[in-house]
Amino acid sequence: MFRNLLIVLATAAALTWTASAQDAGSVIAGASKAIGVDTLKSVQYSATGFDFALGQAPNPSSPWPKFANKSYTRSINFETPASKVDRVRVQGENPPRGGGQQPIVGEQTQSQTIVMGPSTPWPQQLEILMLPHAFLKAAASRNPTLETKTVAGKRYSVVSFVGDNKAKVSGYVNAQNQVERVETLIDNPFLGDMPFEATYTDYKDVGGAQFPMHIVQKQGGYPVFDLTVTDVKANVPVTIQAAAAAAPPPAPAAESEKLGDGVYLITGGYAVIAIDFKDHIAIVESGQTEARALAVIAEAKRLIPNKPIKYLINTHSHIDHSSGLRGFVAEGSTILTHQVNKAYLEKTLSVPHTLNPDKAQAAGKKPIVEGMGDKRVLTDGTHVVELYHLQNFGHHDGMIVAYFPKEKVLLEADAYNPQAANATPPSPASPYTLSLIDNIARLKLDVQRIVPVHYPADSRKITMEELTKWAGRPTSTR
Fold first, then answer.
1. What is the pTM of this model?
2. Are residue 217 and residue 261 in the same domain, yes or no?
């Protein structure tokens, strides 16, 4: 009897799955017909609007900083599939706030080409597959499932399939058989299993098909694109050729330079400084990836053996300066940061990383985060590092610099990112650079050498003279 019951349950489950797949197929067919999936082979559209720099907000409670798209054109071949974007962006916030290469002086031209193939990274494939027409085509061939959801009082048929990264990709089909939203998760080294969603509204007829005239894409909970489509051309000839793919250069090895007794500069990526205290190591900056963080940890332990890394000093919470933090979480280090960042880092560093587990996820380690105010001094009586909070610094409200009074060295992030030695200084000067100079003067720091976290490509030593010359405003520091 028990065996018969198992057979009945298994048969019922199979019938339920088949019915679900059939229902999903019906929804896909209805939506495909309504928006003209078979009709629309290619499309080219122009738009105006904004893009936003992921993870570069001026503080943890603000959205990603905004840039205006003076022009935006995207061509899509749904049959290949392939996509090409050409845009011209300009400064979107004045005065500038946050990162993302701000401030932009004049116009910045950018292009992105994606031709889907077996080796195309899944997040790049999603840039095409999350478009309404491409989503329906992909869902039809990937064992779709169906459920119904009500969001803000509106009922949707939600069609889902499992993506290449094992995360569900779900499309919300409204009562008009239009794909109104597509959502999924992608891996991010800092933000973990990060929400990635796009919404499509204001559909209009385009050459016998329907196409959305308002497109908003979000990552990490905030918009990364907000576009208003101004012109659409259906089924125009679209030829998109993939750019020649060069093999990525190998990550440079961590290299070290002794700045003073027990103080070491580690380069080969984002610059960090390791300090040999009496019974532990402290490191300023984590590196921009987990791989970089692990290389830094290994080099610090080689330079300073048989001591734990007690502190990792985080200059600020921008994504490229925090994506190595989880390597130090796995190490058991305390993350020392400005109090503005404390709650944000505690929350973000606790987000699951199941799509691409890192060492902290594998070890089940939780972050230890400590906040500081305007000044914090770390010393063992011999070695000293002074940590200062920069005031009136638009790049980030919780920015810390590290000053080594014996060595007369200052480590800073993003206030001055050195260009080639013969580069022409910007006009006007970046307000971030000017703020750094003002803070050095306010704090009366005797700085002889500056270590930018974005270390110069030629590895030259950066002096106060170079900094003030670049800013066009020499000033005394004492």
1. 0.90
2. no
74 C-beta neighbours (distance < 10 Å), count? 20
Looking at the structure, do residues 339 and 380 belong to the same domain, yes or no?
yes
E strands of 332-419, at which residues?
Answer: 334-338, 368-372, 375-379, 384-389, 400-404, 409-412
- Calculate the average pLDDT of the chain: 92
Residue 14 lies in a domain: no
Domain that holds residue 56: 21-234
Q: Does one domain contain both 299 and 223?
A: no
Q: How many angstroms separate the CA atoms of 273 and 397, rounded?
A: 22
Bridge partners of 42? Answer: 77
- Are residues 300 and 432 located together in one domain of the fold? yes
**In terms of domains, do 260 and 213 share one?**
no
Summarize pLDDT for 309-357 with one digit per residue, the tens.
999 999 999 999 999 999 999 999 999 999 999 999 999 999 999 999 9
- DSSP, collapsed to helix, strand or coil, labels residue 246 as coil
> What b/e string do you get for 175-185 counting C-beta neighbours within 10 Å, with b at 16 or more?
eebbbbbbbbb
Least confident of 53-62, 127-136, 202-211, 241-250: 241-250
Confidence grade of residue 4 (pLDDT, cut at 50, 70, 90): very low
Domain containing 447 — which CATH number?
Answer: 3.60.15.10
Q: Pairing between strand 263-267 and 272-276?
A: antiparallel
228 and 110 housed in the same domain? yes
> How far, in Å, CA of 211 to CA of 36, rounded?
9
Co-location of 207 and 274 in the same domain: no
DSSP H stretches of helix in 323-415: 325-331, 339-348, 359-363
Residues 446 and 300 in one domain: yes
User: Which residues contact residue 49 at a Cβ distance below 8 angstroms, ignoring those fewer than 6 apart?
Assistant: 68, 69, 72, 225, 226, 227, 228
Residue 83 lies in a domain: yes
Phi, psi of 367 (to 5 degrees): -75, 145
pLDDT tens readout for residues 393-447: 999 999 999 999 999 999 999 999 999 999 999 888 999 999 999 999 999 999 9
Q: How confident is the model at residue 254, as a pLDDT?
A: 84
Q: Using only the alpha carbons of the chain, give its radius of gyration.
A: 26
